[in-house]
Amino acid sequence: MFEHLSPEIHLTFAGIAGLLLLANAILFLRKRSAPDRDDTELVLRVRTWWIIVVSFAAVLAVSTTTAIVFFGFVSFLALKEFLSLIPTRRADHRVLFWAYLAIPLQYIWVGTVWFGMFIIFIPVYMFIWLPTRMVLIGETKGFLRAIGTVQWGLMTTVFSLSHAAMLLMIRPGESARVMAVGADDGAVASGGAALLVLLVLLTQFNDVAQFCWGKTIGKKKVVPKVSPGKTVGGLIGGVASTVALAACVGPWLTYLDLPRSLLAGLIIGVAGFAGDISISALKRDLGVKDSGSTLPGHGGVLDRVDSLTYTAPLFFHFIYYCYG
Amino acid sequence: MADILRFLYFLLIVRPVILIVIGLNVRRSNLLPDKGPAVIVANHNSHLDTMVLMTLFGMRRLKDVHPVAAADHFLRNRLMAWFSTKIIGIIPLEREVKGVRRDPLAGICEALDDGKILILFPEGSRGTPEVRDEFKTGIAHVARRYPEVPFTPVFMHGLGRSLPKGEGILVPFFCDVFIGQAVYWTGKKASFMDRICDAMNELEAEKEIPRWEPS
């Protein structure tokens, strides 16, 4: 059950569990020293982190297919949250049904490693089919808005997120631009899973780092109208922390060498920030605080995967360019 | 036999569809009555309303929960009647009593005497999705006969998008379920109906329905 995952992946999960235990310990001590302080939100958040980490580890451990189905389910929850948040036209009932149908299809392309279809299915076929279906219904009022929002939702929650799952399926090519490190040992055999773990770890770490640095340093706001908590100092500190973690973990966990790990950290740091504030802007536009309530202490699934919708495709194509 | 089928139907079909495909966002589920006799008063947008409310009560209380539904619609043929009464467990209500002098609330009273939890949709029919119609006053007649029975208001939003009247295809949307404090018979029909309607309006106001333009 665990053989297909390298010892480094096991150790990474052990390390994450250690960090969560540390968070539990800190919360416990805070409660002891100041019993009146209300940490309910933080306690819930850490508890939900445990559930996320354990389920992620479990689906990876069972099999690659299970992990792909898991990401498909995450896409489903995220798209459902997105469509529940935005206003939709009653006439588009069946169009939205087609949008949902894109999820299993997109993940079938992942599972069968049909790369060409995977990369064009939503940006080309769905892009043309959904407005066609909409036109056949014949409602023109609000047409552009309706098709624009549905396509954007599919691109972020399904197309982008499926890139995370696709990491599991790619192998370093024979004539790649960059040589994979440790090409003859376990690093390549479980290379996909290691890349996925690195992506998710760095993306989530970047969220936390941006948040913590934003609280401690910097006065100048990056985008005060969208997210008042984000400062220039926080952004730089967050990206620097993510690059540092990428340099430490990347070459050890995956087949990336040090320069490629540093670049990956930079891409994930900057793109994670962009994804985060894009979803923030969406929520602000609609006047809601959280995208949902599926993950107690975090909000909705979309609140949790917001950065991943930007980091997953960019990280994937960086890997594909270097090693594909 | 039918009881086992009913249990399996809710466990294997209704619950997975409601909890995974649809997904609920429930506020204050602790206000739901733990045991009967009790009445749930809810707004009606979709056939899924009943399934959501029954899911909220969990499998343990399933045997005590019964929706009240229109006899003319749900008993219109033998198969439908069997499914409605044995599997869903509806208490049929005659919407129009013609000629025969029979108490239209007899079925409801019998169930309350048995200590059941009833689900009532005082709007009568599903109507236009996500538009709340005025409540019919039938519930006041029930409340007058059972002044000690709690009437718990429940507001639901989203199911009219998932499966509106006239649509056969279910499209997933998250469903909000807001539960309010129970209301008891006040002694007067008008003030009881006002209380119920105020409670529903308050629950509805909790939901900020997103719109493109500020309304």
Automatic annotation (TrEMBL), chain A:
Pathway: Phospholipid metabolism; CDP-diacylglycerol biosynthesis; CDP-diacylglycerol from sn-glycerol 3-phosphate: step 3/3. It is a multi-pass membrane protein. GO terms for cellular component: plasma membrane. Its EC number is 2.7.7.41. PANTHER family: PHOSPHATIDATE CYTIDYLYLTRANSFERASE. GO terms for biological process: CDP-diacylglycerol biosynthetic process; peptidoglycan-based cell wall biogenesis. It comes from the Bacteria. This is Phosphatidate cytidylyltransferase. It is an enzyme of class 2 (transferase). It holds the Pfam family CTP_transf_1. The keyword Transferase applies. It catalyses: a 1,2-diacyl-sn-glycero-3-phosphate + CTP + H(+) = a CDP-1,2-diacyl-sn-glycerol + diphosphate. Belongs to the CDS family. The gene is cdsA_3. The chain crosses the membrane at residues 12-29, 49-77, 97-130, 142-170, 190-213, 234-255, 261-282. It is found in: Membrane. Keywords: Membrane, Nucleotidyltransferase, Transferase, Transmembrane, Transmembrane helix. One of its GO terms (molecular function) is phosphatidate cytidylyltransferase activity.
TrEMBL record, chain B:
It holds the Pfam family Acyltransferase. GO terms for biological process: phosphatidic acid biosynthetic process. SMART domains: PlsC. One of its GO terms (molecular function) is 1-acylglycerol-3-phosphate O-acyltransferase activity. Residues 38-159 form the Phospholipid/glycerol acyltransferase domain. Pathway: Lipid metabolism. Keywords: Acyltransferase, Membrane, Transferase, Transmembrane, Transmembrane helix. InterPro entries: Plipid/glycerol_acylTrfase. The chain crosses the membrane at residues 6-26. This is 2-acyl-glycerophospho-ethanolamine acyltransferase. It comes from Stieleria neptunia.
